[in-house]
Amino acid sequence: MPGTYQAARAAIPGLPDDPKKTTPEQDKAISDWYKAQSAAAMTRALGRAPTEGELGLAILAGPAGAPALLRLDPNTPLTAIPDDFWQRLGEKFTHRT
């Protein structure tokens, strides 16, 4: 996600300019930070704390896309979801198969 690493750098001291040069410890710190950010955004969007599965969905669809997917009828096949829904979620969802 563009901007995510820069936001993590602002929040986590000592991260290198180049995300490819992080250590395993720094990678874990970034992951923990992103999970906390996603949990906070999901809590605001859902009005409750998200489950671990919902947080996993936030990693895939983002903290804005996950609540949108969770609001869909659970019996709706993904192929029946209108294309504009995927376009609103962003570029990575516009080339679904």
| Protein structure class | mainly alpha
How much beta, percentage-wise? Answer: under 5%
Radius of gyration: 15 Å
Mean pLDDT comes to 84
The outline comes out as elongated
| Distance separating the two termini | 21 Å
Helical coverage, percent range: 55-70%
Query: Biggest sheet, in brief?
Result: none
Count of helical stretches: 4
Report the uncertain regions: none
- What's the helix-strand series? HHHH
Please report the total strand number as a whole number: 0
What is the strand and helix layout of this fold?
Elements: H1 4-11, H2 24-46, H3 52-70, H4 83-89
Helix pairs in contact: 2-3
Explain this structure to me?
The protein has 97 residues and is an all-alpha fold. The chain has four helices and no strands. 59% of the residues lie in helices and 0% in strands. The longest helix is centred in the middle third of the chain and has 23 residues. The mean pLDDT is 84.
